[in-house]
Amino acid sequence: MTYTKRIFPIFILFILLLAACSNDEELEQVKSNTEDVSVSADTEEVADNTKEEEEENKLSESDEEEPKLDIEPLPSTYEELASRPVGEHHDFTFNLNDEDIQRMLDTFSDLPELSEEPSNEELDYYFQELLKKVQQGYKGPEEAIKQLRFQSIGNPEQENSRYQFKENLNVEILLDASGSMAAEVNGDVKMDAAKESILQFVESLPETANVGIRVYGHKGSGSEADKQKSCSSSDIIYPISAYEESSFQSALNEVTPSGWTPIELAITEAQKDLSEFNGANNTNIVYLVSDGVSTCEDQPVEAAKQLYDSNIEPIVNVIGFDVDNEGQNQLREIADVTEGIYTYAADGNELSEELAKVSDLAETWEKWKEQGQQSLEYKNVNNKIDIFVYITDEKSKTTKEKSIIYLITSQMAQNGKMSNEARDYLQQKNNEYHDWIREEIDQFNEELKALNEKSYSEALRTLEEKYQTNAQ
Fold first, then answer.
1. Which residues are 214's β-sheet partners?
2. Continuous segment of H or E residues that includes residue 251
3. Residues 378, 382, 387, CA angle at the centre, nearest 5°?
4. How far apart are CA 366 and CA 302, in angstroms?
5. Do 290 and 332 touch, CB atoms closer than 8 A?
6. DSSP readout, 266-295?
7. Per-residue pLDDT of the chain (472 residues; tens, 9 = 90+)
8. Which of 20, 81, 36, 107 is nearest to 401 (CA)?
9. Nearest CA-CA partner of 122 in 132, 106, 111
């Protein structure tokens, strides 16, 4: 009994200690479980963040794979339309036979590839790139102003002194004699056609008018070894003076196309040729004739501007003779910086027609001199700028451009390059765009007709004010 009493308190103490240890273990387990839950939550959060980052990276990679297309707005004014560069394939034509269709597919194989179900954005971009390739050389109001000024040289209402008749009339032609002028156009060698056109022109000049011919690129060859020699070649084969048939023909016959195309050199030398003919007493006209871009790494545009700003006060016009789109764009720049006219001549006949305008002007100058430099009775604006020809030419360009886009998209669909739905979208866009161009041309036609009833100075002022407003 006494032994039991002694053992019992010890047993109770043992139980209490055991319970305490058990509670500590449970607390440790709870603590451990809590930490595990926290770690698990953190792990899940990291996993979620990683997943989000992966998705963002995928989106970013997707964006890189499909960059936003660079779609430019179509022209909204006729001035914007006329300022667009001539397309690489502006003169492209093909017939609906297997050989020509394959030629078309090869020529336009670098157009953007369309997906099976292209978006409107893809199709708009496709239309833009196709249009760039077949873009025609439209002539806007600014070109009409230039034509009006040139065809009205000598008009007593002319305010710009360079367009007024002076005591002497001097015309210098800068003739391209590079190797490419040996090629044929419409069955004739280009150089032969140019010589014939120039002979017809000088023979029609009044006896008191002076003419000069300077050639360039006529030495050496088209080889790299001869480039420096050719790019340094430009000679005046007939100094500026009255026309004398035998010596002129003899000089022209000696010209053989052979080398590169140093246009800057020709323009710079022309300024020297005309240096003794001050603009105060001379009406000076320079015609640059070229069948291509300058190939001598020179600066023809800057040289033309320097010539234009000199005291010679020349009128500078440019003729692109069977020239490609790159050449047209550079020759247009030369005409633009000299406020001159750029004309494309497809063959010798068109070159003759352009030079004939100078002959007509020279005859008017001669009459002006015969009447003791008194004012002449001038024709209406309609006779100074042929409205019908001008407008018809512009309409023919939009018809050609619209037709070629229609044919190309039709054949692309038939040959599996696009769906019929894509073709229909592009052709609808093509119709709407070219309908707008025709409306602009019709409006411009009405404006030109109305100007026919005004005096020269009022008509020119109206055109200039409208152009300047639209160009801002």
1. 174, 236
2. helix 245-253
3. 150
4. 33
5. no
6. HHHHHHHHTTTS-TTTEEEEEEEEESS---
7. 444 444 444 444 444 444 444 444 443 453 444 444 343 444 445 445 555 555 555 544 444 455 688 899 999 998 899 889 889 999 899 999 999 999 999 999 999 999 999 999 999 999 999 999 999 999 887 887 888 788 788 877 777 889 999 999 999 999 999 999 999 988 899 999 999 999 999 999 999 999 999 999 999 999 999 999 999 999 999 999 999 999 999 999 999 999 999 999 999 999 999 999 999 999 999 999 999 899 999 999 999 999 999 999 999 999 999 988 888 889 999 999 999 999 989 899 999 999 998 998 898 899 888 886 665 665 655 556 677 788 899 999 999 999 999 999 999 999 999 999 999 999 999 999 999 999 999 998 888 888 777 777 777 778 778 776 544 4
8. 81
9. 111
Instruction: Say which amino acid occupies 275.
Output: S
Q: Length of the chain in residues, anyone? A: 472
Structure tokens at 336: 């633009």
Taking CB atoms within 8 Å and a gap of at least 24, the contacts of 423-431 are: 425/120, 425/123, 426/123, 426/126, 426/127, 426/130, 429/123, 429/124, 429/127, 430/127, 430/402, 430/405, 430/406, 431/402
Distance CA 91, CA 104 (A): 12
Q: Which of 306, 301, 302 is CA-nearest to residue 318?
A: 301
How many CB atoms are located within 10 Å of the residue 325 CB?
Answer: 18
DSSP-assigned letters across all residues of 209-233: -EEEEEEES-SS-SSGGGHHHHHT-
Q: Where are the alpha helices (DSSP H) in 76-161?
A: 78-83, 98-107, 120-134, 141-151
Q: How many Cα atoms within 13 Å fall on the side-chain side of residue 152?
A: 28
Which structure tokens are listed for 381? 């604006």
Residues linked to residue 176 through DSSP beta bridges, in sequence order: 216
447, burial (CB in 10 Å: exposed 0-12, middle 13-18, buried 19+) = middle
Which two structure tokens, joined as six digits, stand for 251?
């000089």
The token duo for 461 is 């002022």
Identify the helix (H) or strand (E) that includes residue 388. helix 387-414
DSSP state of 315: E
